[in-house]
Design brief:
Aspartate Aminotransferase, domain 1; 7-stranded mixed β-sheet; 42% helix; 3-stranded antiparallel β-sheet; alpha/beta; 2 domains; binds pyridoxal-5'-phosphate; Aspartate Aminotransferase, domain 2
Length: 429
């Protein structure tokens, strides 16, 4: 059969393991199996109330309009106020953000792709702290950029390697550094010292530095998140830094608004104006009614500190339950307690390829008709072989369901070992 070829960039756009597991989980659910979907970072809790009220009121007005391609002024202003308030409240010295520094996008995903398209040419190399949110690979492939890993390790608390180690990966093609803190999947929060080191390296080698801060509010322990807006450098360097950094943010996680698809890029006005050109020439503009709803969500947390406190409490409680359940039902695994975001990485030291276990758990196993979808972690790494014995869990259910899910994982693990013949046979001796 004659067929036209597709663009080369599409060939690199394989479905992520997160989406692959979601497809299977949804099919099994349709067939009547109960699947706890711990594979997706889709919060189960109801969205923030202000969003619904403002969205409904705006829709009732009956005029649904194109929006300026840079975003609605009221949302850009409110988001800038929220950011400044976030740091002021904690008495943290920071760069003050104004609406000119804010671009509205279709979620953080579109913020990232638009930024990559605006900053990088095909063949440019971008260093990325590993493990990382796996869709970064696809977002970068669209722009033709090449991701290179800055590896970090659970056994070392995911601390950044020394500067000279990082510098070994910098070539004449390197144009940027990308990180996510608090991190999906590791939960690592980069310290101020680590952020400053990355900023200095970026400036030394003339690189952009892009910080994905979508989990800013999701703190699971005592360490607060840090931001590129807090980096303090000598006056001469500070000016260059202001022209080099970009922050990515989103309403998806903090407000349980994944489906609203509102994200942000924050940076100096000329950078924002250039990234806005990509928005103008791709989606033209972001939904005006949804921007209205999201602006109200930010107004709500500006006046109600309880919202974020409750959010943190909810996820901490889930994490506590998960850690206890892991000790009880999966005692042989390695699962470091994360500091932020809402994921858990679990290493199975005795499995070579965790995919087989994950598929066994999802497709072949059930306890009373129930099973669990997890994400095999290899796609969170660029370094060959890494993540092959790890899975990621998202803490997106109430505590009892998380405990039940981990119990099912433990039972499935015992059954899997028997199924694969991994269990040692009893000796006659
Ligand atoms: C680190 C990170 N960045 C970006 C995104 C994309 O967020 P959005 O839903 O706003 O596109 C996610 C979603 O899970 C994420 O975990």
């Amino acid at each position: 059969m004659d067929s036209h070829r597709f663009a080369k960039r599409v060939e690199q756009l394989a479905p992520s393991s997160i989406r692959k597991m979601m497809g299977i989980a949804r099919r099994l659910a349709q067939e009547g199996k109960t699947v706890y979907e711990l594979n997706m970072g889709q919060p189960d809790i109801a969205c923030i109330s202000g969003f619904q009220e403002a969205l409904t009121a705006k829709v009732r007005e009956g005029h649904i309009c194109y929006s300026p391609f840079i975003g609605e002024t009221y949302l850009r202003e409110t988001f800038a106020r929220y950011l400044n308030h976030h740091f002021d409240q904690r008495k943290v010295k920071h760069l003050v953000v104004e609406k000119e520094n804010v671009l509205v996008t279709v979620g953080a995903s579109h913020a990232l792709t638009s930024t990559f398209l605006a900053l990088f040419d095909p063949g440019d190399e971008i260093l990325c702290v590993e493990p990382f949110f796996s869709p970064y690979s696809g977002f970068m492939a669209v722009a033709g950029g090449v991701l290179k890993a800055i590896p970090t390790f659970a056994e070392q608390g995911f601390v950044l390697p020394d500067d000279d180690q990082i510098e070994k990966s910098i070539t004449p093609k390197t144009r940027g550094i990308l990180f996510n803190s608090p991190s999906n999947p590791s939960g690592k929060i980069l310290s101020e010292d680590e952020l400053t080191r990355l900023a200095r390296l970026a400036l030394k080698h003339n690189l952009y530095i892009i910080g994905d801060e979508v989990y800013r509010e999701m703190i699971l322990g005592d360490q607060e998140s840090t931001s590129l807006l807090q980096v303090q450098l000598e006056a001469g360097l500070m000016e260059k830094f202001k022209n080099s950094f970009i922050i990515i943010d989103s309403a998806s996680k903090s407000f349980s608004l994944c489906g609203a698809r509102i994200g942000f890029v924050v940076g100096r006005a000329p950078i924002i104006d250039n990234i806005a050109k990509v928005v103008a020439h791709t989606v033209a503009s972001v939904s005006d009614v949804v921007q209205y709803g999201v602006a109200r969500a930010y107004e709500q947390i500006l006046s109600d500190a309880e919202y974020v406190r409750n959010l943190r409490h909810t996820y901490r409680e889930r994490l506590d339950v998960a850690m206890i359940a892991i000790k009880e039902y999966l005692p042989h695994v390695v699962a470091p307690r994360p500091d932020g975001a809402f994921y858990l990485m679990i290493q199975f030291p005795d499995l070579e390829d965790v995919n087989e276990y994950a598929m066994f758990l999802l497709e072949r196993f059930n306890l009373g008709g129930e099973t669990v979808a997890v994400t095999p972690a290899a796609s969170f790494y660029l370094t060959p072989g890494r993540g092959r014995n790890e899975v990621r869990l998202a803490l997106v259910y109430e505590p009892e369901k998380i405990r039940r899910s981990i119990f099912i994982m433990g039972e499935a693990y015992k059954a899997f070992k028997v199924y694969r013949g991994l269990e040692k046979k009893a000796s006659l001796r």
